[in-house]
Amino acid sequence: MLKTRIIPCLDVADGRVVKGVNFVDLVDAGDPVESARAYDAAGADELCFLDIHATHENRGTMHDVVRRTAENCYIPLTVGGGVRTPEDVRDLLLAGADKVSFNSAAVADPDVVARAADRFGSQCIVVAIDAKTVSPGKWEIFTHGGRKATGIDAVEFARMITDKGAGEILLTSMDRDGTRAGFNIPLTRAIADAVDVPVIASGGVGTLDHLVEGVRDGHASAVLAASIFHFGEYTIAQAKEHMAAAGIEVRLT
Amino acid sequence: MLTAIIDYESGNLHSAEKAFQRMAREIDGGTVTVTSDADVVARADRIVLPGDGAFPACAAALRGQSGLYDALREAVEQHARPFLGICVGMQLMAEWGREYSDTSGLGWIGGEVVKITPDDPALKVPHMGWNDLVIDAPHPVFDGVKTGDHAYFVHSYHFRVTTPAQRLAHVNYGGDVTAVVGRDTMIGMQFHPEKSQAVGLRMIANFLRWTP
User: Fold this and answer.
1) Which of A130, A173, B27, B173 lies at a 20 to 30 A Cα distance from B149?
2) pLDDT digit string, tens, across residues A207-237
3) What is the pTM of this model?
4) Nearest by CB to A76, which of B125, B172, B195?
């Protein structure tokens, strides 16, 4: 049976991890490749790199990070941040990414997702949705790191973009991101139940119970977290044991 | 000993290349090269056919390079070189792919590639993530691998084989989903061994050692 995935996410800027990974003795905690190796060894099911300062000029830096990571890690790698065109997708796939994530570009032009999925297959096209609660049971897409409202309903967008060919949704609750108060469960469930493709829950994890809630109550197929792992509060193994004890099927390594 | 990973412009070969090269180094398994050169495929001792994306697109891309396609067929069908298909590369071993349209495959393993239809509507398609293998038949590539070990899958279609004995492993996903097929000198894996950590690397090493 398919297992629920635990995905650590590393924010990368100019080829460096923004908040270094602290749970093992790394020679260079700011090196994304070393951090990725540590997570691979720790039993992470996938990895996610988010290029938070993606610009045209520093693209080569990220490609180099992806290339070196792919040479050292034998688990799937998703890369997002600044992806705008099918060519951007192609460059990252050739560098060694397994999946590439669209964000703002998919909101501005949903057809770019269709073009990328037709060319490379839905299996490698992720769409990252950043949503905020606007009224109870109503969520709106925000872009530009949560600063720009779009007026687009998040659930409708998720349905439409998976029809276009998105193979997975990376859903971040902008209300919860950074709060450590847990996932936005109603939002997660509304989207997970609305689409046929896997949904990764993101934003707000502070405890291991939150991971359980995202899957059990939010119906997510995977959970993404950053700080609870990066700072050594919990290991991947502890997270998996906790989820297994709650009756969630995970891959124990 | 030369292992050729066929590059027909279908997907990311970088991680596959690195994983095969690493295991070849560890077991003294010779050279691994990524190639679209028919001559290299013709003289390779082992052949790996990867593939990501849609069946018709991959089949067309492979056939589009006629010399390469013919070299592959000749090496596997006439010279019995050990062959490993990965993901869509495994699906291409089928007689038919039913994705979007009906497309003929290499026809090495009887059966067709059809949409995954889990009997539980809560199960998502694509089947994406780690699933535990159920080994149906022993095979040298499973040396050190057992039922219950996990592999990484990402696909929406799967191989329904005609001859049950040619399905070597499966997983459960609202019904049986074929994980490994094989006969004679050919083997195919639906999952990505190059993305399946120690279990996958083990199977890659086993393939590189396999002398059918």
Assistant:
1) B27
2) 999 999 999 999 999 999 988 998 889 999 9
3) 0.94
4) B195
